[in-house]
Amino acid sequence: MKPKLPFTEKFLWDLYKFINKTRKLTGKVLEEIIPEYTHHKSKAALRLMFPNFNTFRDVWEYKYKNKKKNKNYFYNLIYQLKQRGYLKTLRIKDGSAVTITPEGLGKIFITKMKLADKKLRKDGKWHMVLFDIPESKRRNRDLFRRALQYLGYKKLQKSIWVCPYDVLKETKELIKRYNIEFCVELLLVNKISLN
Question: What is the DSSP string of 37-62?
């Protein structure tokens, strides 16, 4: 069962999916974006320009027409997301474009982890993550732990987490995203005692 997302996360996730769908349909690459990439602030790597934002507004308003309180509801939501630092508006030659900021991409990445399809491994084995992340990377360590929880991992010891679900791909994305490859080990174990 998929978790119920806060409305702002749902909006960002819908925007992200819409952008990717638009790209696939038109065959156009607006700018390359890899949200699973590193957590650095490089605008070149993380900026996503989306000039046809009005199309998204129309689709979004149709999808959520029962929740729309007034005509300005959509723009109030955009304003709130800009205030939180998740979106930014830029002037371009044809008008304006909306950009998902690095903070917004981080939020989308966490949403992706929350929505990951968690199926028990067919072989009954467990994924085990062992890590020793230095204090200099404390923020990444804390974000990594929280994301492990979203994937269904349980803490066995302080730096040892286990999971019965088939989430190896997502776990590797986490490790790459937080740039902690050098201090994490992944194991596949036959049996776990959680007592």
Answer: S-S---HHHH-EEES-HHHHHHHHHH
Would you say 52 and 137 are in contact if contact means Cβ atoms under 8 Å apart? no
What's the pLDDT at 11? Answer: 83
Contacts of 130 (CB under 8 A, 6+ apart): 159, 160, 184, 185, 187
CB 130 within 8 A of CB 159: yes
**DSSP state letters, 123-137:** T--EEEEEE---GGG
* Structural domain span for residue 15: 7-111
Q: Give the pLDDT band (50/70/90) at residue 94.
A: low
Are 20 and 88 in a shared domain?
Answer: yes
Q: Which of 39-43, 78-82, 113-117, 138-142 has the lowest mean pLDDT?
A: 39-43
Compute the chain's Rg from CA coordinates: 19
In whole angstroms, how far apart are CA 52 and each of 10, 74, 98, 185, 195?
19, 15, 9, 43, 54
